[in-house]
Amino acid sequence: MALSSFDIDAPRWDQSTFMGRLKYFFSVTDCRTALLPDSRLDEAKALVESCRAGSIPPGTTEEQLYFAKKLYDSAFHPDTGDRMNLIGRMSFQVPGGMAITGAMLQFYKTVPAVVFWQWVNQSFNALVNYTNRNAASPITPKQIGIAYATATSTALATAVGLNLYTKKAPPLVARWVPFAAVAAANCVNIPMMRQQEILNGIAVTDENGNKLGHSTKAAVKGITQVVVSRITMAAPGMSMKNLLYDCMFCRFTAPDLVFMVPAACSLFPQRCSIAVSKLEPELRDSIVSQCGDSVQYVYFNKGL
């Protein structure tokens, strides 16, 4: 294939299948990309944009284009094209999540320790949720503050309550406290950090990317899928590991996260779809009046 006709935005792997998405997310969540300087990421962005404009520098190979797209997708937001903060990127989930998960499983016996590490974890999650939101829906600093306070307080209340409830329980039971708190907090943290999408809807398009309107039902579907993915991401490291913690935790935590981050992200397509028949009546009628029966599904970025 001539590079002059190279479509850098065409999926390298089939995004309609779990295995295709898994290969993609293994690539873009590679934690080594988090070590690269901003200058290298900006170079990758410049090459991607040059390719989109049909102006590929002489001597550029196909593999160089694929690698530039990998760096671009790992560090720049798909809605805005802006470089995401380092800690909020999915490529930082392995080192960041490993450190926090290890601390929560190690320091769970006292209330102060539970409070502190749940606060650290939910602060980390809030930043990740904000970074990977659908950026077409703006959120004010006040709304971010309310979302952060609500999510963190929910996690703390759950963790402390369970800690007190299981104080006289066997250690094995007590070790399930961190996962129960994380799962509950994810059900609050993500919707709260992305509340504007639920309140005002997110942009939906046809198959060719033509904008058709905003839908709150699409937002709810996308955010629900993200919640499921995040709980799945944490489940092996914070539940099954409890059974093997004493002898295997340090040996298997990093490999587990290396696999679970891309696997959880791959559960659902990032470019999500919803049937026109399931949209709000006003939006459905608008689409039918514009397109007739030619558009059966609309598409949107559900975030990660």
UniProtKB/TrEMBL annotation:
Q: Example GO biological process term?
A: serine import into mitochondrion
Q: Which GO terms describe its molecular function?
A: monoatomic ion transmembrane transporter activity
GO cellular-component terms in the record?
mitochondrial inner membrane
Protein location:
Mitochondrion membrane
UniProtKB keywords: Amino-acid transport, Membrane, Mitochondrion, Transmembrane, Transmembrane helix, Transport
TM ranges: none
One Pfam annotation reads SFXNs
* Membrane association type: Multi-pass membrane protein
- InterPro entries, per this entry? Mtc
Indicate the family of this protein: Belongs to the sideroflexin family.
What is the name listed in the Swiss-Prot or TrEMBL entry for this protein? Answer: Sidoreflexin
Please give the organism: Sphaeramia orbicularis (orbiculate cardinalfish)
Q: Which gene encodes it?
A: sfxn2
